[in-house]
Write a structure and sequence with these properties.
single chain, 222 residues, alpha/beta, Rossmann fold, Arc Repressor Mutant, subunit A, 2 domains, 8 helices, 12 strands, 41% helix, globular
Length: 222
């Protein structure tokens, strides 16, 4: 069961999503605009947000940017437009998936499950991995080195969590792209290489935990 925040200025859309989310046993909260969504995320924690793009006062992209200042919660964007620019812009600011209206509520719930699995969501146990001074808190989505929190992009978090969840296992480039970006990701290996480079920079003295396997991919030394 996930704690889901639905953000859309259309009552019918929120009700439709809530109906299917309730049926699957999820705990649902609603916001009619971006300002309310930002406020709610400051006051409560959620597992995932389903966010409309076109809203009054504060659009979905701006809302995500504000929420990202204090939380790395996964976000699925909803939009009546399917232009490539919108999708790319959404992914650049840390959106995890993009669904074009009209959509299938059943498929949307499947996408929620897929995103949460990629995040390695653990709603019951507080799961923490420690390696010397490196601490990876899966439940709180927090990484620290020698007690100091490390600021990472959403995709860096997701990539590190997937590595750590599959430590000491050789992971092919194709496997990493599929699991972290999704099976329908249309980007190339360059995106993975760039994020590996950024992740190693964020890990500092622990960057050597990510080992390059020539001709195969990578392995996280746990």
């Amino acid at each position: 069961m996930y704690k889901i925040l639905i953000v859309d200025d259309e009552d019918k859309i929120r009700s439709l999503i809530k109906k299917y989310a309730d049926f699957e046993g999820h705990q649902v909260y609603e916001a009619g605009n971006g300002m309310d969504a930002v406020r709610m995320c400051r006051e409560e924690s959620f597992d995932i947000i389903i966010m409309d793009v076109m809203m009054p006062e504060l659009d979905g992209f701006s809302t995500v940017k504000e929420i990202r200042k204090t939380s790395q919660i996964p976000v699925i964007m909803l939009s009546a437009r399917g232009e490539e620019y919108d999708r790319i812009h959404g992914f650049e600011i840390g959106v995890d998936d993009y669904v074009v209206k009209p959509f299938s509520p059943r498929e949307l719930m499947m996408r929620v499950d897929a995103v949460m699995k990629r995040y390695g969501s653990r709603t019951e146990d507080h799961d923490v991995l420690e390696k010397d001074g490196l601490k990876i808190d899966f439940t709180a989505r927090r990484v620290s080195i020698d007690g100091e929190n490390i600021d990472m992009s959403p995709k860096e978090f997701e990539l590190l969590f997937y590595f750590a969840s599959n430590r000491n296992i050789a992971l092919s480039r194709e496997k990493l792209i599929c699991e972290v970006w999704g099976y329908d990701y249309y980007g190339g290996d360059r995106t993975l290489d760039t994020h590996i480079k950024l992740l190693r920079k964020s890990l500092g003295k622990y960057s050597n935990l990510i080992v390059t396997l020539r001709g195969i991919g990578y392995r996280f030394e746990g």
